[in-house]
């Protein structure tokens, strides 16, 4: 198994996902393109699940994966420095997995709880937070009209939180694969070293 090429492919895939997560999280601060006061923005947005979780915490292992890819399949696993790089790659991949999982959790809560909005009396509140899963606004579009401002806030939140949820799931899966691949790299490195000794 060519763990180096696997790492490089995963690293290349994670970069655009992390960028999309950061952009999606930033857009949540500007519902329908409007600039609101801090107190008028949905509280879960301030957990930075797209910027920190699915963004920065995933970009770090992505850089390491590209470096771990090297020029060959497993050659960079040999020697103390090779094993150190692989260990660091595994640790950062676990961090990336945690970031992706964190994004999934917060995005799920954001979808279930609904947005902060003005229901018509000028006061911002969470009209859907006490709903049961059976009566959730996600399955009853007729209730969306309760939010008057910002315009289209419910659709805005659903789309962006859904994107972040999907990105988080994909990132968590890819980082988990890299953890397995990185651990396999230790065996691969030993195999390459033995092969070189046998050729001399």
From TrEMBL:
Q: How does it sit in the membrane?
A: Multi-pass membrane protein
- Put simply, this protein is called Transmembrane 4 L6 family member 1
| Annotated keywords | Membrane, Transmembrane, Transmembrane helix
Family statement? Belongs to the L6 tetraspanin family.
| Keyword check for Transmembrane helix | yes
Where in or outside the cell is it found? Answer: Membrane
An example GO CC term for this entry is:
membrane
Q: Which residues cross the membrane?
A: 12-32, 44-66, 87-112, 153-186
